[in-house]
User: What shape does this take?
Amino acid sequence: MQYIGRFAPSPTGPLHFGSLVAAVASYCDAKFNQGKWLLRLEDLDKPREIAGAADIILQQLDAFGFEWDSEIVRQSQRSHYYAQALDTLQNQHLIYPCTCTRKEIADSSNLIGIDGFIYPKTCLEYPLKANTKPALRIRANNSKIAFHDAIQADIHQNLQIEVGDFVLKRADDLFTYQLAVVVDDAAQGVTHVVRGADLLNSTPRQIYLQKCLNLPTPYYAHIPIARNAAGEKLSKQTLAKPIDATLSAQQLFEALQFLGQPTPTNLQFASLAEIWQWAIAHWQLRLIPAEDSTFKQHAGI
Ligand code: GLU
Ligand code: ZN
Assistant: This one.
């Protein structure tokens, strides 16, 4: 089987150490397995996009020595495919409109799931609000979705109980991440998804959509989340510093350490190209820790 991996950043800001770690893990795993590594810009959420961030991300990846295969895929140009997938689900009567606001859901739901309030299916029982553009939700099924994660071991989730009916198209007409990622991973032939564990909770939703759309399920490996000294996930919100091209060799070395790879001490003083060469040749996915307990020592990042 040809291995196809990918990195799928959202252009909401420059890459930080947490995104670097995800890029490095997916890259090394693909290259070690003689696979392809594709790049996809998840630029669907225009309101959250930062102008210029996509270009900065590409420059950062380039400066760190990543080489991607094939054309870069931009989700903003693929709405047609998401609409088709939604049609397929609609034909199975899995989709229904919802005109509830966030506040109404918060006030009416008495169940909190892994991703906020469980939608209490109000719009299935009561008429929709007039003159209000609806969001489109998919009915979550009531059975256990289980998969084996190469790093986080056996994961299972009952979508109906733990997530509820989730939105595939927002009232502002934007397709959501969950639908787009499933359509695109399949369209790009992705066989292995290596990404941050912040998305572990989303994976059962994606597997459910794959099943409904009759698409293959890739292998998944969720790497630990990089945190700052205060224990917060590195992100734009927590003011994570962008990775720095002038420190690329050092930061790649630190990413490999974060990923539990047994980096020889002298590699610390090697060139970027030498570190890449070592990293790909000696890559061991099984050494990646499930938790991020070792991260505190890199608190300067
Ligand atoms: N675009 C997502 C992010 O930047 C990653 C999606 C994925 O890898 O599935 O968090
Ligand atoms: Zn509703």
Q: What stands out?
A: Residues 293-301 have pLDDT under 50 and may be disordered. Residues 8-10, 42, 181, 195, 199 surround glutamic acid (ligand 1) (CB under 6 Å). Residues 4-77+225-294 form a domain with the Rossmann fold fold (CATH 3.40.50.620).
